[in-house]
Write a structure and sequence with these properties.
It comes from Mariniblastus fucicola. This is Zinc-finger domain-containing protein. Keywords: Membrane, Transmembrane, Transmembrane helix. This protein is mainly alpha-helical. The protein folds into two domains: about 50 residues; about 55 residues, no CATH class. The termini are far apart. About 10% of the residues have low confidence.
Length: about 130
């Protein structure tokens, strides 16, 4: 051996008994903690995404159901849909509807809905 390599070897000290095994166990423990952390992060992220998608779907369908059910909703002026107004329009124009609440709902709807008001106008102003 040359003198340079013998100097390098003299810097190394022998390990205490069990030091390498202890270091390996520490590294394994840190890896296990890191794996659990990654697993929990992925699980929480997936759960949040799933919950968000479920809530978005629920709110979309719930708002459609509410729109159909709630009277006076902006999408259904007068609490009656355009399809229902159009279906009842001939009776409304002929003033043969017997339900006063329905007649009032149609009147409110026509005051607010340009589309149905146009149909009403075309039915009442024909020769």
């Amino acid at each position: 051996m040359n003198s340079k390599s013998s100097n390098q070897e003299s810097h190394w000290l022998p390990c205490e008994d069990g030091a390498i095994q202890s270091a390996a166990e520490s590294v394994r423990a840190l890896r296990a903690v890191e794996q659990r952390r990654r697993f929990l992060k992925a699980t929480v992220t997936g759960s949040v995404c799933l919950a968000g998608a479920a809530f978005a779907g629920w709110s979309l369908f719930a708002s459609n159901d509410k729109r159909r059910a709630v009277r006076g909703n902006r999408n259904y002026p007068g609490g009656i849909s355009c399809a229902e107004v159009i279906r009842l329009m001939p009776e409304y124009v002929a003033q043969s509807l017997t339900n006063e609440n329905l007649t009032n709902s149609i009147a409110v709807h026509l005051a607010d809905c340009k589309h149905c008001r146009g149909i009403h106008h075309s039915m009442t102003h024909t020769a």
